[in-house]
Amino acid sequence: IRFRSWNTETGAACHTHRARERARESAGDARCSRPCYILRRRFPDLCIVADSVEHAGRILQEQGLPPACCIVSGLPWAAFDEDLQDRLLAATVDALKPQGRFVTFTYAHSLLLPAAKRFRRKIDRLFAKVTTSRIVWRNLPPALVYCCTTSNGAV
Q: What is the pairing mode between strands 96-107 and 68-73?
């Protein structure tokens, strides 16, 4: 089982995988140091790598791992300009295996922002299937989840 999450505050990535699979331990960088420190303490059998999602493909390759089954993201997509959305989404899609999943959330109040609408159009174009959860009103602020699945072959 593999899990990749993107730090919501810094945009840095924390990639994890079972220790027996790791090729080597990576020191990471300061962009994600606190969240990665917490993950390392809580899950000592996992290898934690702190880096940008833009490098996910290279990191997986360096660790001797296949493309990801699932990428979970908490990045603030509605706050990014188009160029940054394009770069991060391209890296995310490239790091996924065929029929891989990309799961991310957004806050309900941001859905009307132009960047949020642009992001939705982009994921609809990049993925074979995009489902949207109901708004979770008990979350503060209320949020919803996008679950995106790549096609059988190349996206």
A: parallel
Q: What is the pTM of this model?
A: 0.74
Three-state DSSP state, 29: coil
Number of H helices, E strands in the chain: 4, 7
- Residue 8 is predicted with a pLDDT of 41
pLDDT given at position 153: 59
Nearest Cα to Cα of residue 17 among 85, 55, 69: 69
93-129 b/e (C-beta count within 10 Å ≥ 16 → b): bebbeeebbbbbbbbeebeeeebbebbbebbeebbee
End-to-end CA distance of the chain: 23
User: How far is residue 80's CA from residue 57's CA, in Å, rounded to a whole number?
Assistant: 21
- Closest by CA to 26, choosing from 36, 34, 35, is 36
Provide the 10 A C-beta neighbour count for residue 88: 21
